[in-house]
Amino acid sequence: MIKKLLPHPALTVTLIVVWMLLANQITLGGFVLGVIIGIILPILTSPFWPDRPRVRFGPATWFYLALVLWDIVTASFQIALIVLFRRSKDLRPAWLVVPLDVRSPEAITMLAGTISMTPGTVSCDVSACGRALLVHALDTPDPEAEVARIKRRYEARLKRIFV
Amino acid sequence: MDAGPVEILISAILVVGGFFALVGSWGLARMPTLMTRLHGPTKVTTLGVGSCLIASMIYFPAMQGTFSAHELLITLFLFLTAPITANMIAKAHLHRQKRGLDAEPMDGIADSLPESGVGTGWATFAGRLTEPSDPPR
């Protein structure tokens, strides 16, 4: 019963929070409307999510978010330095292939998004079978070390969040 | 009018944000190829916009006594859309380069793009590269 009414509890909570933030004030009416939207939308969209990802909301998740935020800040400084002071011919751009251990599409999407937002890398494509990511790096002296860093720093942590 | 410490803080954050937005745009303009150009806007400009949002989040409670949560939402939507936009641009670029629609080859896509190494090709080219005689439109 509860499974039928709330097929996707995390989505329900997200929708209520986003709705309250959009309304920009905490009122009972706004909350009720948010709850209605948060219940109806997951039911209407549940055909789009045949295999719901099981996400673990724990310290690992919050630590991952904080890590990514921190990396975005440091990434900006690195890229800003390259943009300002590196001559174009001294750049060492490279294509990286990141073999994937995570399998769920949601985890791969999170990883690709993280790669795009963090130091010197933009994810461009995924292999047709979903087992490798194509990543472009702006400036890498050592492509293999960069791939290892992505796998160690982000993918290993994502594996613990998406179970 | 006296500038209080809060105003100085807000101004400093705004200046830093403006600086990063400028650097990101400068990177877009000066980098040599499309793929290298993508790096500035996805990262540096994000921090620039983020700084302006932080300044706004300090300004409204401190100066006007009202709290606004819209900045958090803007941050959320920015983080959702920036990687996807970059991905779409990169995919379009991969297509144009592989099919020779661009006059000059860039980023080594046509000749030295690495294989995926897992048995299947890249999803962007799935079912496409088998017909290289496809006429350019």
How far apart are the first and last residues' alpha carbons of chain A, in Å?
24 Å
Major sheet summary line of chain A: 3 strands, antiparallel
Radius of gyration of chain B: 21 Å
Structural class of chain A: mainly alpha
Contiguous runs where pLDDT drops below 50 for at least 5 residues of chain A: none
Low-confidence stretches of chain B: 129-137
> In one word, what is the shape of chain A?
elongated
What is the helix tally of chain B? 4
Helix residue percentage of chain A: 55-70%
Sheet with the most strands, sense and barrel status of chain B: none
**Can you count the beta strands of chain A?**
3
* Structural domain tally of chain B: 1
In quaternary terms, these chains amount to heterodimer
Query: What is the radius of gyration of chain A computed over CA atoms, rounded to a whole number of angstroms?
Result: 20 Å
**Nearest-integer average pLDDT of chain B:** 79
Q: List the strand order in the largest sheet of chain A.
A: 1-3-2
The pair of chains with the biggest contact is: A-B, 42 and 52 residues
Distance between the termini of chain B: 62 Å
Describe the secondary-structure layout:
The complex is a heterodimer of chains A (163) and B (137).
Chain A: H1 2-5, H2 9-23, H3 28-45, H4 59-85, E1 94-99, H5 105-117, E2 121-126, E3 132-137, H6 143-161
Helix pairs in contact in A: 2-3, 5-6
Chain B: H1 5-30, H2 34-64, H3 70-98, H4 109-112
Q: Main attributes?
A:
heterodimer, A: 163 residues, mainly alpha, 6 helices, B: 137 residues, elongated
Can you describe this structure?
The complex is a heterodimer of chains A (163) and B (137). By secondary structure, chain A is mainly α. In chain A, 59% of the residues lie in helices and 11% in strands. Chain A is built from six helices and three strands, in the order ααααβαββα. Chain A has helices spanning 2-5, 9-23, 28-45, 59-85, 105-117, 143-161; strands at residues 94-99, 121-126, 132-137. In chain A, strand 2 and strand 3 form a beta hairpin. In chain A, helix 2 (9-23) packs across helix 3 (28-45). By secondary structure, chain B is mainly α. Chain B has one domain (5-125). Chain B has four helices and no strands. Chain B has helices at residues 5-30, 34-64, 70-98, 109-112. In chain B, helix 1 (5-30) packs antiparallel against helix 2. Chain B is elongated. Mean pLDDT of chain B is 79; it is low at 129-137. At the A-B interface, helix 2, helix 4, strand 1, helix 5 and strand 2 of A face helix 1, helix 2 and helix 3 of B.
